[in-house]
Backbone:
């Protein structure tokens, strides 16, 4: 089992940057991802990191967000640049064990371990 704790959220003006952190108790053989949920909207995938190190990004954040894992600190990061008001949401990190060697990428249904979230607010 893995536990995840997010931090780093806050309020920032449009065009600014934030770096979210997620402490993970274990990551070996776990697929990892960042998701977000805005009020009245469904939870959506933002970025994912497979066990082989490959990354996937939602079209809306490509070129602006970067997911990374620091193995020495057991921490998953989401670097967010050029933030927009539409990026405002609660951000969650999540994990799941590989399913027959497969990671589910941005599919929220594939993840069974979740943090409690950290709020990101982008003002115009």
Residues:
């Amino acid at each position: 089992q893995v536990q995840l704790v997010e931090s780093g959220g806050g309020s920032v003006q449009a065009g600014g940057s934030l770096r979210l952190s997620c402490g993970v108790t274990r990551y070996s053989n776990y697929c990892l991802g960042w998701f977000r949920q805005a009020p009245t909207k469904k939870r959506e995938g933002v970025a994912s990191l497979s066990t082989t190190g490959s990354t996937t990004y939602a079209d809306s954040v490509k070129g602006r967000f970067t997911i990374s894992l620091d193995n020495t600190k057991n921490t998953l990061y989401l670097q967010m640049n050029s933030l927009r008001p539409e990026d405002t949401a609660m951000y969650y990190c999540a994990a799941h064990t590989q399913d027959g060697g497969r990671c589910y990428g941005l599919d929220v249904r594939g993840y069974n371990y979740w943090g409690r979230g950290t709020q990101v607010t982008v003002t115009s």
In short: Residues 53 and 102 are 13 Å apart (CA to CA).
